[in-house]
Design brief:
The protein is an alpha/beta fold. Helix 2 runs parallel beside helix 10 (252-265). The model is unreliable at 550-557 (pLDDT under 50).
Length: 557
């Protein structure tokens, strides 16, 4: 923290923070000891106390160890929508001294195959409606066991408000290597004493790179712990707080800012399986929600709800988020309605959520905020690596306790991700930004080739690789294009094979069967040829630059 930044530091908070040097499971154990009967989770009227949460975590951890042979450092896949079982499975994996591999529930079999093979996952927790996607992978490579969860098993008195996909039930064990969740719980297995500590791997979330192949980010209990604790302290989280979970738990922000921070302080988490603006309003009013972390697209949708005025939102004390700049008009609308400022922040999968955040007493809009506790962040020239001054645009780099160890089994990409300056190891974010005279950070653009669609990161090379499988696609380049709701979305520039009459609708329909929905091109432009360099490489930057005017937000912010 610089002298300038210290003038805007939150009053009463120290410049540096000491996080617990224990495993994440210790946070749950302590919360269960302190607040055994307090609500840890609420899911459509079903209330799960900290005592029950810990009990089910212990039972499933024992099942993993005794029936699945999971040991220290083994990787376990976790694929579900937001639900109590996700939280229970997450902590059960950690309690078994294993490593959580959280994956997007939108991923299809071929996309899952890469994660399973690359991570060497031995077992999986998967939701009932997603289990069939894992069937072809069971028994292949390392994946030998799976526990299948039915969302409906955890519904309460408000089950009628749940979407049909959550209320659905059925045969949970449709594969000989899969076992129903309730059967695993009822096995009565007890886990061995926990041995994993702060330096053990805890979480291996996958993020895509410019090569198009997703890569695992190695996070220890220590890196995850620091990010969760620092975020909770910065936000003023306390026992008794009630948080609304609307962001996906497989994603770093939902996992950390919502789930892990809440458990650390002994708070209550009200769980939404998927985004629904009307449901969000009802849950805030019914459960007196005090804290809500969202993204701008959610807030835009929420504030445009015609029935919003019918709900009492007065319990909200903090609304925060990131992923993209909040449009000024939307931030003002939120303030007019609730009296609250939208608290923007910044973080990456590689930092397992927050590294920068706005101080409560002096927030700025369309701003990443200040580097939080123990974080040294700078702006450098991406080519010369020289540090730049206020107002100069360069690459954002980060040094801090929450920065990951590196990419799983990929030393080359790990070396490329870091730079040494002043004896410190800094993460190169690939994001361009600037600092103002007060030390606040602002996002400018992306140095890397990436599309940010409603907070989902889409890497063009990965989508291109799939598009090339279509027999009538001769050449393809994926770029980002403007979208008034998602911020930006995916566009395919395609050269048809000779004699092809392939239509845009037919190509998009095919793509929806090949990849997660957020990666599917929403626009297709057919051209006679793509510009290429002397070495035959598609000049994607030229095409992206030509598209850039339409990528600006509709309100110009």
């Amino acid at each position: 923290m610089t002298r300038t930044q210290s003038r805007h530091w939150p009053p009463g908070l120290p410049p540096r923070l000491s996080a617990p040097q224990t495993s994440l499971v210790a946070n749950l154990s302590i919360a269960a000891l302190r607040y055994p009967d307090a609500d840890a989770l609420v899911f459509f009227g079903r209330r799960i106390s900290y005592r029950q949460l810990l009990s089910e975590v212990e039972a499933l951890a024992g099942y993993l160890q005794q029936r699945c042979g999971i040991g220290r450092g083994d990787r376990v896949l976790l694929q579900m929508q937001n639900c109590p079982q996700f939280v229970i499975a997450y902590y059960a994996i950690l309690r078994a001294d294993a490593v959580v591999v959280p994956v997007n529930p939108m991923l299809l079999t071929e996309e899952l195959a890469h994660v399973v093979t690359d991570s060497g996952a031995c077992a999986a927790f998967v939701a009932l409606e997603l289990a069939a996607r894992l069937h072809p992978l069971m028994g292949e490579q390392t994946l030998r066991h799976a526990v299948v969860a039915c969302y409906a098993d955890y519904l309460g008195d408000d089950a009628h408000e749940a979407p049909d996909s959550v209320r659905a039930s059925g045969e949970a064990a449709a594969h000989p290597l899969m076992r129903p969740w309730q059967q695993a719980l009822a096995a009565g297995c007890l886990p061995a004493p926990a041995v994993a500590g702060s330096d053990d791997l805890a979480c291996l979330p996958y993020t895509s790179g410019t090569t198009g192949q997703p890569k695992g980010c190695m996070h220890t209990h220590g890196t995850v712990m620091f990010a969760a604790v620092a975020g909770a302290v910065w936000a003023g989280a306390a026992p008794g707080q009630v948080g609304l979970l609307s962001l996906p738990l497989f994603h770093a922000t939902g996992m950390q800012v919502s789930m892990n921070a809440s458990i650390f302080v002994g708070g209550t988490l009200v769980i939404m399986p998927r985004w629904d603006r009307e449901l969000a309003a009802r849950l805030i009013a019914r459960h007196r929600v005090t804290s809500w972390t969202s993204i701008p697209t959610m807030m835009i949708d929420f504030l445009s709800s015609p029935g919003l005025a019918e709900h009492d939102l007065s319990s909200l004390c903090r609304v925060s988020g990131g992923g993209a700049a909040m449009p000024a008009a939307i931030a003002q609308k939120l303030h007019d309605l609730t009296g609250l400022q939208y608290m923007e922040g910044y973080g990456l999968t590689e930092t397992i959520a927050t590294t920068h955040a706005n101080p409560m007493q002096r927030p700025r809009q369309q701003c990443l905020g200040l580097p939080i506790f123990n974080v040294d962040s700078r702006i450098i020239d991406p080519d010369t690596h020289q540090e730049l001054g206020p107002g100069e645009v360069g690459e954002i780099i980060i040094h801090g306790p929450q920065v990951f160890l590196g990419y799983w089994r990929d030393e080359a990409k790990t070396r490329a991700a870091f730079i040494d300056i002043d004896g410190k190891r800094f993460l190169r974010t690939g994001d361009l930004g600037r600092i103002d005279d007060d030390g606040y950070f602002f996002f400018t653009d992306r140095l890397k080739r990436m599309i940010n669609a409603s907070g989902y990161k889409v890497w063009p090379a990965e989508v291109e690789a799939i598009m090339y499988r279509h027999p009538e696609v001769r050449d393809c380049c994926i770029v980002g294009t403007g979208d008034p709701y998602r911020g930006e979305t995916v566009k395919a520039i395609v050269v048809r094979a000779a004699g092809s009459a392939l239509s845009a609708d037919d190509l998009m329909s095919w793509a929806r069967r090949q990849m997660a929905a957020y990666k599917v091109p929403r626009f297709v432009e057919f051209v006679d040829s793509l510009p290429k360099s002397a070495t035959g490489k598609v000049m994607w930057r030229q095409l992206q630059d030509a598209e850039r005017p339409s990528r600006e937000p509709a309100d110009g912010s």
